[in-house]
Amino acid sequence: MYKKQAIKDYGREISIFYARSVIALIIVVLLLFLLLFRQFKLQVLNYESYQTQSENNRIQVRPVAPIRGLIFDRNGELLAENRSIFALEITPEQIGRKKMDDTLLRLSQLLDIDQKQIDEFKEQIKFRSKYKSYPIKSKLTEEQVALFSVNRHLFPGVSVEARLERYYPHGEDLVHAIGRMAAINKQDLEKMQQEAEDTQDFSKLNNYAATNKIGKLGLERYYEQQLHGTVGQEKVETDVRGRIVRVLTRQDPDAGKNLHLYLDYKLQQKANQILKEAGARGAVVAVDPSNGGVLAMVSQPSYDPNLFIGGISQADYSALINSEDRPLYNRAVQGTYAPASTIKPHLAWLGLQQGVITESTRIADPGWFSLPNNKHRYRDWKPWGHGASMNVFDAIVESCDTYFYDLSVRLGINTIAEGMRQFGFGEKTGLDIVEEKQGIMPSRDWKKVVRKEPWYMGDTVNIGIGQGFWTATPLQLANASAVLANDGIRYKLQLVKGFSENDVVEAIIPEMAHEQIVTGDGRWLDLVKSSMYQVTQPPKGTAKSAFADASFTAAGKTGTGQVKSIAQDETYDAENVEDKFKDNALFIGYAPYEKPQIAIAVVMENAGGGGGNAAPIARELMEFYLTTNNFIQSQQVAEHQPEAN
Amino acid sequence: MFKPLSQQPTSNTHKASQSILWRLHLDAPLLLGLLMLMGFGLLVIYSAGGENLGLVKRQLVRLGFGLGVMFVIAQIPPRILKMWAPLLYIGAIGFLLAVLLFGESSKGAQRWINIGIRFQPSEIMKLAMPLMVAWYFAEKPLPPNFKQLMMGLILVVAPTMMIMLQPDLGTSLLIASSGLFVIFFAGIRWRYIASAVIAILILAPIMWFFVMHDYQKGRVLTFLNPERDPLGAGYHIIQSQIAIGSGGATGKGWLKGTQSQLEFLPERHTDFIFAVLGEEFGLLGVAILLTLYLFVIIRGLQISLQAQDTFSRLLGAAITLIFFVYLFVNIGMVSGLLPVVGLPLPLISYGGTSMVTLLAGFGILMAIKTHRRLHSR
Q1: Which residues of B touch A50 (CB under 8 A)?
Q2: B110 interface with A at CB cutoff 8 Å
Q3: Which of A90, A220, A248, B172 has the fewest CB atoms within 10 Å, i.e. the most exposed one?
Q4: Which among B50, B107, B185 has CB closest to A129?
């Protein structure tokens, strides 16, 4: 230190620094004067020229909204289109804040606009540029257009514009499958702004400059980016107030991509119709097992998505929100139900795979099961039991609860939880929809974390019949059924098959969601599948009456899910149970048995037994799909009989 | 030994040291200048964003965060900063390497790195560079000899090249200049400066043909002749000049700028905010803005002059001048004196991580001012 300091000349150093600072400051001041002089030149010397240019500044670049992509079903049926409508639009700047309320009031008297529409409009203009026009009411009728035209002079700043607007021709049949759109709201815009700032990429935000609606649910939301397209630009000549006088040049927007679905609209419509006729709250999901494509996805009751497009009225909205049947709720992907006996085939497979049972393991069923050193009786649905010697095949066919209580204890909860994930329980199916729920595949750790309680043996027993903590969506059930149909191969479920853009088609290649499940050289698979075939057959199949005289072969499994737990000595009496505590009816299955084309899950809330209520619906839909797609002739009678076990 | 007046400890400072701001290691005049600039900025942002309060709120949050960073840094004594300078510099070099190797691209340039949070390492380098160069010259006998000068230049050039490769020419030049300012204040001989200027004049054409990207050449060409592309790149320049010019001496009034309000003007609340200010507040508003900036710069240089050691002195002066470069380049660009480069107007423009870096720099200045040893050497 001392040595260095010895040759460091502080005095000189500081005087140099001082001198340099003065020089720097002089340069800074000179340059600031240069800037000031530049402004002086612009603002004072050339003021008049710029003032004139500003007054005459008529060339303005305006964004042009792209045309949104269409949605088609597998047969080219149009499911979502754009219709030209007349919209009543207001440019806030041309009205001014003071006159706004008055204008809105007078408009609402003239054209039947309710408070909710006014509120939504006001909300929207609060955070967007006031120099653009925003719709207050879309879908004006011809009379309304005429009425406004006559009174136009009373409403400066208000205009009727021809716009393209989303329209769902099949309304409520499809909303739970393809979703819907609504006006861009504050949250949407803030999210986009935040994202743009985080990534410093403003292109997406700019892309919405002319867009007023955005996908809110389902495919419309998931594929928003592809459907939306790219904004165009239009150089327009305007007057001083910003009104367009004429269009000079135009860079056309790029329309969004069309979506092509696996969905079969006819099947979707049929399923809706059947559920509706049955007066059911429930869901139907049908999947093509060979690729994971969703053929139908129905949730009832439903609602008309077109109501939301032009700004929903207060009355319509209250009706939807307050309905006890919750039509807005998408049961197919958001409803989580106890899978009940529908998962017995999967558990049987797991038992065989883990070696805790074999094809010939037999147990006695006195009508109940109990754990060692515990008096609690877990009852079979058949009070007197299924006999002294049940094997796994018959246990599936007759849906013997006692056998599966026993099996689940043999397997243990951790093995079950892990094994059932192979079939997609407890995880999302990967469907191209944001709202999907994953249900619960319970395990020791899950209970510790979520319920803050230890796992009890009795919890495992309930899992054996798909009750207790286990919940699954109808989508997961259809998925699990498709895995069996497809010999243990599970695909990621997919609604969209591909995109098209100017006749160029781009297909999405089906992906496997899980490696193929070990099938024990096909033996375990054959046993489980043939037992599911037998479920649809006499003499003992639980779905035998539903499939009586069917023109095709099918495999299936019924389920009856308890909604309310029944005390030890109480009996379930369907007559005396409040409607909302009645059993859920479930059915999973696939057809044809030999070469599956459709795997299906039906869930009906509080409808009663699965064999009597859900299975007939599955059968009708299978038949419908197989016939309309010529997989079977309507008259053909199934001849194939699997080997009896 | 000769000492300028400012270097002598005076009894007055003792009294000042009792004030709350002093104990919080904040410099009142500097803080006042910064806050006034920020306030001015918020007014203009509100207008430029189409009376969008959300925008103003988000900017307030950012300003709050930036001031927080400034406050924290002001608590660190300069000798600690000096101790950590080499490590910070090496760390920043490491990040820049990482960006080149596995950085995330955005709009054709790799500038981002993701380690839990995404950030631009070049922002760290903006501070690491003057810290490192000041560290290097602090213990050398000044003015530096040729060998030391070369060493200093290597410290400047290495990160500059790395940022240039991202490619981000604007930022690399800014960072290079922050290091060069330190060398300037360290007392580099004028003949070296003169030869550097000549070298640049020779190198410029080479840069043009071999280093600059097409989009950069386009900006320069459009700057020289905006009419070349009146509705494309030149649109920015023409529209912003019309906006400023039509503001006149006293402006059209707050929220009343037709150019900006009618959306003729692109990037109104970010890089081109000066045009909105010029349109709505006129020459008067511009003069007030420039005066505020000058006030901050003078205070920065004053603090550096009174600094107690070479390191602080060099660092403080370089930070102050870099601040000037920012505002000069931005205003020059918006008013048509310089080609368009993506640089915000410091403390006025909406958003930007660069503001946080800038405020961190002011934190260092405040630390230099307020962490004074009782005994002068």
Answers
A1: 241-242, 244-246
A2: no
A3: A248
A4: B50
Cβ <8 Å between A35 and B332: yes
- B40 to chain A, any CB pair closer than 8 A? The answer is no
Q: If you search the block for the tokens 């009728």, which residue do you land on? A: A141
CATH number for position A474 = 3.40.710.10
ipTM exceeds 0.85, yes or no? yes
Are B259 and B275 in contact, with CB atoms under 8 Å apart? yes
CA dist A520 → A351, A445, A556, A590, B182 (Å): 12, 30, 21, 21, 76
What pLDDT score was predicted for residue B29? 94
Give the pLDDT score at B10: 46
- Total structural domains within chain B: 1
Q: Tokens 């901050």 — which residue?
A: B296
Picking from B239, B248, B313, the nearest residue to A51 by CB comes out as B248
Do A213 and A105 fall into the same domain? yes
Pairwise CA distance, residues A502 & A492, whole Å? 28
Which stretches of A51-127 are assigned E, i.e. beta strand? 59-64, 71-72, 78-90
> Does pLDDT of B288 surpass 70?
yes
Q: Give domain status of residue A406, yes or no.
A: yes
Most B CBs within 10 A among A26, A42, A60, A131, hence the mutation to make, goes to: A42
Q: Is the pLDDT of residue A308 over 90?
A: no
Tell me the chain B residues in contact with residue A240 when contact means C-beta distances shorter than 8 Å.
258
pLDDT for the residue B261? 63
Residue type, B227: E
Q: Is residue A541 part of a domain?
A: yes
Domain count, chain A: 3
Phi–psi pair at A409, nearest 5 degrees = -70, -40
End-to-end CA distance of chain B: 11
Residue B217 lies in a domain: yes
Rounded distance, CA B207 to CA B226, Å? Answer: 22
Residues A73 and A49 occupy one common structural domain: no
pLDDT in tens, A52-86: 887 776 666 778 889 999 999 999 999 999 998 88
Q: Tell me what percent of chain B is helix, strand and coil, each rounded to the nearest 5.
A: 70, 5, 25
Token pair 């107030």: residue:
A241
A517 and A429 in a single domain? The answer is yes
Which of B1, B245, B337 lies nearest to residue A50, judging by beta carbons?
Answer: B245
User: Which domain range does residue A12 map to?
Assistant: 2-55
Active-site residue list of A: 341
pLDDT one-digit tens code per residue, A502-520? 888 888 888 888 888 776 6
Could you tell me if B261 lies within 8 Å of chain A, comparing CB atoms? yes
Q: Which helix (H) or strand (E) holds A491?
A: strand A490-491
Inside any domain, residue B15? no
Do residues A232 and A358 both lie within one domain?
A: no
Mean per-residue pLDDT, A526-543: 92
pLDDT band at A276 (very low <50, low <70, confident <90, very high): very high
Q: Which of A32, A55, A78 is the last residue of a domain?
A: A55
Query: How far off is chain A from B15, nearest CA to CA, in Å?
Result: 26
Q: Do A198 and B118 touch (CB under 8 A)?
A: yes
Task: Give yes or no: residues A352 and A478 share one domain.
Answer: yes
pLDDT at A236 (0 to 100): 75
- Note the pLDDT tens digit of each residue in A189-208: 888 877 777 766 677 777 88
Mean pLDDT calculated for residue range A319-331: 90
A195, A123: one domain? yes
A111 found inside a domain: yes
Mean pLDDT of chain B: 83
Enumerate the residues of chain B whose CB falls inside 8 A of the CB of residue A198: 118
Q: Nearest Cβ partner of A129 from B4, B263, B283?
A: B263
Query: Looking at the structure, do residues A151 and A280 belong to the same domain, yes or no?
Result: no
Residue B200 lies in a domain: yes
Which structural domain, as residue segments, surrounds residue B220?
24-370
Q: Which pair of structure tokens corresponds to residue A638?
A: 């199934």
In a domain, B98, yes or no: yes
Asked if A622 and A616 touch (Cβ cutoff 8 Å), the reply is no
Verify that A139 and A166 share a domain, yes or no.
yes
- Residue A538 backbone dihedrals phi, psi, to 5 degrees: -70, 160
